[in-house]
Design brief:
CATH class: Alpha Beta
Structural class: alpha/beta
CATH topology: Rossmann fold
Strand order of the largest sheet: 2-1-3-4-5
Shape: globular
CATH architecture: 3-Layer(aba) Sandwich
Number of strands: 5
Largest sheet: 5 strands, parallel
Length: 148
């Protein structure tokens, strides 16, 4: 099974961007950990990052044709991108929304997600573990769908 991991805007700056909020891990380190866990789980993990909403939509559409599940950190798009929300709903795959920081303990606007209602679930506030738990959860849901 193929699993897409999509990282939204500004996540390419991880490690140097607000390390007190997002930690010191780089996006490359997060991706390596996800690929390693994917190997343990018996799935192929492919990671993508984009600062462009349209590119993330295209990647979701591609995932709908090629992948069995998606781990998605929409970053700032979480709070207002109805286009991404609609793409998540349209692909018909298990999608788990993840966030490094605890969005519910931050500014008021970060507490609202337009993605969560169409996702299988949301995991936030656990740093790298948000992604790793998200991958475990989405793989389990994808295998349930396949009847494996």
């Amino acid at each position: 099974m193929l699993v897409y991991v999509l990282h939204g805007p500004n996540l390419n700056l991880l490690g140097s961007r607000e390390p007190d909020v997002y930690g010191r891990l780089t996006l490359e380190e997060i991706n390596r950990a996800l690929v390693a866990l994917g190997d343990e789980l018996g799935v192929d993990v492919r990671c993508f990052q984009s600062n462009a909403e349209a590119e993330l939509i295209d990647l979701l559409h591609e995932a709908g044709r090629k992948a069995g599940a998606v781990v998605f950190n929409p970053a700032a798009f979480t709070h207002y991108s109805y286009a991404l929300r609609d793409a998540v709903a349209a692909v018909g795959l298990p999608v788990v929304e993840v966030h490094l920081s605890n969005v519910h303990a931050r500014e008021e606007f970060r507490r609202n997600s337009v993605i969560t209602p169409v996702a299988a679930g949301q995991i936030s506030g656990l740093g790298l573990d948000s992604y790793l738990l998200g991958l475990r959860a989405v793989v389990a849901r994808a295998f349930e769908r396949e009847g494996s």
